[in-house]
Amino acid sequence: MRFLPRPPSILSHRKSSFYLLRNEMKDKIGLIWIREDFRLIKNPALINATHNHDKVVAFFIYKDKKFLNKQAQKWWTYKSIKNFKEQLKEFNINFETISSDSYSHFFNKLIKKNNFCLYWNRIYEPDYLKFDDFLIKKLKNLKINYSIFRGNTLNEYQEVTKEDKTPFKVFTPFWRAAEKFYLEKIPSSEKKIKKSKTKCNYFEEAINIEKLFPKKNWHSKFEKEWVPSEREAWKKLKFFLSNNADEYSQKRNIPSIFGTSKLSPYIKNGNIHVETIWEEAIKLKRRGDGIKKFLAEIGWREFSHSLINYFPKMLKENYSNKFDRFPWKKNEKFLNAWKIGKTGYPIVDAGMRELYNTGWMHNRVRMIVGSFLVKHLLIDWREGEKHFRNCLLDFSEANNVAGWQWVAGCGADAAPYFRIFNPILQGEKFDKEGSYVKKWVPELKNIPIKFIHRPWEFKNDKNFKIGTSYPQPIVIHEEARAKALKAFQKIK
After folding, report:
1. Is 75 an active-site residue?
2. Does the active-site annotation cover 363?
């Protein structure tokens, strides 16, 4: 009996179709929409485009309105574009910036060309995901090739749910399920960026990135602290894993020392992928509580993204409906004192001044200053969220909102409202020598350690006068605590 060969017509047709498709893609320009992806490693949109096309152009859409209330991030974005542009030159890839008031307007104009394939990575915020759906539908209708990839998370947010497919509302079971899901996934084959054969320009309307440079001189202080680039992110990660990871559980609460990784702005802006951090961390042979605690911080970030997508109302409203009845106070005088670090409570003031001067604040101190605003001053958490949004280099819609609602007691898996941080005791516990306070509140540099967190009790120096040298406390802790608990009774 003879085996007949497969009819050649079908086989050759399939091969030729695939060949034509591949060649058709090669002939087109690969456009990579960069949003929060300023990196070469684990940037699937960029990497796949370089494997599929001979000519590749990366672009960033600058929307001035987006940065009106995010001035610190405007500086970081400008620096990231500048540094990433230099990186991409080594691979024959041009990085162009286009100014547009609207993503829709920009893409309506772009798709008329139809000589490109579009690549981009997801951002897990409701507005971005909604626009992704809109854009995908448009591209499909016009038969324009596109590829969209997982963004800067370990998992897609919808991949991690309870057995009944409902979302988690408590962190610990969420992270247990998310970690298990991630570890059991079949790893995708790791690709590296390829050098393009030909470097080219694409957008006639590309602008000079100096237009993004912030006009206010505020950013000049950031220059001393930060280098927004992928290389710097790797340096910080390597330093942390070599020097601080083992004792992270203890050091992470001490604001006067370099006990954290300070990677949050790099993660937020995509200078490094969280999967890179995970992989480098688990390479360590010693995997104690420090590494577990450190990786759990990635878990909190994933949890926050899950929350805002399943419960998008929490981006502007209380997650817990009962807090809609909470008697918040409007007090511009107190709010401004808090913003500029003149509340009379040294650990609070140090934190707010660190934020203004560096675009970052230590996590323990974020909880202290947050608790002080919403519980001592009874000011709506949304005022704090708005201020942080403008000042934080690591501002993340998910983390910021979830963090503020956690502190206020109105979020998912939140701290109970009656848990009110005592700013005096918090200072004495986590800044025992007063080093953090003295760095950011130099008016107190000569105050004895005994009084550093309660300077109003210091009477023995004629050169130091409370109310003149340093502000009187704007509220008395015991009285403020009693008012906060009374206010809480109204929503029970």
Report:
1. no
2. yes
